[in-house]
Design brief:
It is globular and about 80 Å long. By secondary structure, it is an alpha+beta fold. The protein folds into four domains: 1-103 and 262-288, no CATH class; 108-169, OB fold (Dihydrolipoamide Acetyltransferase, E2P), CATH 2.40.50; 172-248, no CATH class; 340-492, FomD-like (FomD barrel-like fold, Beta Barrel), CATH 2.40.380.10. Helices cover 26% and strands 31% of the residues. β1 (18-22), α1 and β2 form a beta-alpha-beta unit. The strands form five sheets. Strands 17-18-19-22-23-24-26 form a seven-stranded mixed β-barrel. It has a six-stranded mixed beta sheet with strand order 2-1-3-4-16-5, with helices on one face. Strands 6, 7, 8, 9, 10 and 15 form a six-stranded antiparallel beta sheet that branches.
Length: 493
Amino acid sequence: MSGGEGDEGDADAPTSHRVRVRGIYSTALTQSLLDAGHDVVQASPPIRRRFDADLPAADHDASVETTEDRQGVGVAGDPAAVDALRDHLHGIGLDALAWDDPTPLGAVFDGVVSTTLGSGAVVDLGEAGEGFLPFDNADGYVGEDDTLRVQVLDPAAPWEDDRPLLDTRVRAMAGLATLVPGREGVRVSGADDADARELAGMTDLLSVDVPDGWGIEWSRDARDAGMDALGDALSRAAEYARTLDSTLSQSEGEPGRLAAPTAGAWVWFGRECRFALDAVRREVTTTMPGHHRTKAASRVASSGVDLAEALCSFDGGGTGDGDDDNEMDFPFGVVTDQFGPVEGDRIAIGHGKPDGRLIVLGRGEVTDRDSDGSITVERQMSAGGTYDALDARREAGDVATTTFREGRWWYPTVYRDSDGDRKGTYVNVCTPVEVFPETVRYVDLHVDVVKHGDGRVERVDDDELDAAVERGELSEELAQKARNVATALERAL
């Protein structure tokens, strides 16, 4: 369902969609989406105060919400709207990465329980992967190898160490309105009897054909919505219910997706994206240098940014380009003094992959921190195997010393044996490094440069970079940046 058409006579005019935006990127994304011709609806009170624009309390075609770890956003809703928003958000910065969600909100699967844990069951969903079914969400006893029909209640970003949350009770979810099979009448989530009676009366006035056998449940936000918004939401829910009706009548089969009334996508924002969003936000309201970079670090840091911007004014601001001297406008030292990491802390290396996965390479001790935005991390290595591409054995007593510089498109790791002799140096090419309080974060761009113990320099994994571009995981522009960085490193080493 789209919120409007392009200008008549212009077949190439983009379609406008109605978008609900939530989270730490809301101000910048609201401005960006308005500039792109979309309609932002159901805006929060702070957003309504900041914008001199019509932000109606209408139903939304799709939502854009910040992920739990603040690293990016999830998009959910009408498939056409999700496709358009995914492409728009992917264009925020060079280091943005985007993926379609194989388990979007509301999707229904036949699944098989692969294992049970203390609080629930892991369910095999076929090609879409796995989901987690809490026992409280199951209708009856659940054991290994049971075949179940489940619905996605809460999707999970590909980089999060989590599975989508499932329920065996299938419903038609459409934001403000949800239809529940086997239920009669009208209910309002979290509302008192007076609110429920008022909404029930308003529902009777809506000319929406709700399928037989489905009861109506309004969300809390529905109490503040107008008749048009309620009607749109209920119409969408009724449409989803009709889609699901045929699904529910089928017998359970092999693991796999049966229906997906809505679509989903995930967009990860790298460091350049966060600074680009700073610049957009600065057009609207007071924005400190590194606003989104600092807010992405932790919830406590996010509150600190709000306080600083409420008390101070900020002129100018860094570009976010790690090679620009103006980057010192981002107060790296102040931020890390307050929130970490500092010397003596232990920090994880969050090695993102272009397919969306996040691999933790291990944890090490911060042994040094420089004013240029660099930290040094040491890890004690265990014996076994060899170091990737270095042709050197991994032995007890080895030490890996890694230097991360905020904003740099690469970082080196030097491997030494127990006597301090160098075994080799591995330089990883990646999206600009971000040094968060508990994790160094980036996405690996496959191509790397190594310097062997004998001084020989070798470039590796260009073929993996090319394959990632062919699979659509990386843009050609981002891949070319990685190749250029690798070439410069070859010359420097």
